[in-house]
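A protein record pairs a chain with a discrete description of its three-dimensional fold. The following entry can be read in just this way:
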Amino acid sequence: MSEFNQNARWRYATKKYDATRKVSDADIATLKDAINLSASSYGLQPYKVIFVENPELRAQLQPASWGQSQIVDASHLVVFANELNLGNEQIDAYFENMVQTRGIALSDVQGYMDFMKNTINAIPEEARNVWTAKQTYIALSNLMNAAAELKIDTTPMEGFDAQQYNQILGLNERNLNAAVVCAIGYRHHDDATQHAPKVRKSESQLFETL
């Protein structure tokens, strides 16, 4: 069995964290790098990733998260916020970064930039916001897989009130929306969930070959 699959079998959606244990700065840097290396449509990374460390903010977020203990007990809380109404401004910034990073002229990629603008701007705003929200889940997956390799526990969470998160974290003013949340840290020794076998479909149920 590959080490990747072994790590995937080790991880689970942690229900109870050891609030006394903190993820090291070095490991947080590794996780941030993994998030930054995530694939995204067109490479645009149409989101902001917010590490909420302030305990007062996290205490405010807990009631907006159905009272779940992971919000305050985990070492770190990560909020993936998708960009709303993405358009020319973000695309221009992406190509400016590309030109500087690759040492090329803007004229070399002008056709691709125009194509991207025409394609994205043609998508209705509501559908565009759904699209950018979907991109956050790819980055979330990279975070979870990298954390499992470091034997750091994670809990991906959709059980929260996005509007309250947006208000508490000041996301509305930044044209951002809380799409998905992930608690990271170390499982508590008495979290019974860690001993439960994974429930997954059989290969014959899940996979199909045409």
